[in-house]
Predict the structure.
Amino acid sequence: MSKSHVPFSLTIALALTLMLGPFSVDTYLPAFPQMAGALEVSVADISLSISVYIFTLSFSQLIGGALSDHFGRRTVLLGGLALYLVAALVVGFAGNMALLLIGRAVQAFGAGWVLVSVPALVRDRVSGQDAAKLFSLIGLIMIVAPGIAPSVGSAILEVASWRWIFFFLAAYALFLIPVAKRVIFRQTPKRAVAPGTTGMLQRYLNVLREKRALPFVLWQAAGFSVLMLFITHASFIYQEHFGQSARHFSLLFAANIVAMLGFNLLNRLLLSRLPSLTVLRGATTVQALGMLLVVIATLGDWPVLGFMCAMMIAVGALGAVAPNLQANYLEFFPHSGASAAALLGATQFGVAGLASGLSTRLPHTLPAIVGAMGVAALVPVSTMLLTRRTLTAA
């Protein structure tokens, strides 16, 4: 089996593993009002659980990335799944807000070890334009997760309480353990672990010394923050501001996923004709224009469907931005893929988690939320323009 050839079963398995991320965040969004009532807190307080999850996810990836380069992908990925499973059960049985937040933090710690392993596994196998295509294909499959996750949550709420959403997440983690053992690690090349003399801090210092890769880190963090700000406040935007039901909220939220799917398909088509970096620049420009349209829709008090269409462009463009960013960034790190991926993921989730948490302290109004998203959307396009002459395509 050649290094550049990736079996479709492996692609599916990697995508299913990455789907743990969006399932962890999006499945319980429709349950916010019920959770707030059960725990006797506000919906804004429940939104804080997303910020805690995302911020912890960033820290855990730094640890998981270095451990993965040192001990191997298998140990870290399977260990993360086991930790995630136990934490999801704890959250399901939580009787107060403090235990909910602690459980979500531990759940994120396990998820971080899982999520950082997948880009490293891809980089172990392919590089350059091939990596961009594989990331795009994985993204195409896993886009299904945030599309169906709120609907899965709504379906569970029809027959059971919000607690069963987290029992479902525990069951999904349990399902991924044999998938990893029987598919992923049987179809990925054996990789020698990094020398034991290289410490965790040194691994990240080595990554940071690659100055050409750093703009991609800022680019990714800010672009992802746009999505996380939207997810954090999606329940308020559609269910409270626009007065939509939980079922309609799931459909409105899924519209953004349809847009991401469309951009991802277009991305795969363009990668056959254009360098990955060229496609990345185009998608980043579209995201900025989409965010401008969202601002106009907010100031113009557009109806819910008009607002939804504008948001579809701003959020959907990430379907083309993310895979190209990962591929171009990881091209600089052929021998330390997990540590490099961890730094990218940690910065991405850390910045997004901080932005998400701070945004819960803003006035709970649509203009304030959209304003925060607009500021985040300015950073990727600014980074793109400032580094136009210095970055080279993967």
Remarks:
- The chain has one domain: 8-187+199-386.
- The chain has a mean pLDDT of 85.
- The domain at 8-187+199-386 is CATH 1.20.1250.20 (Growth Hormone; Chain: A;).
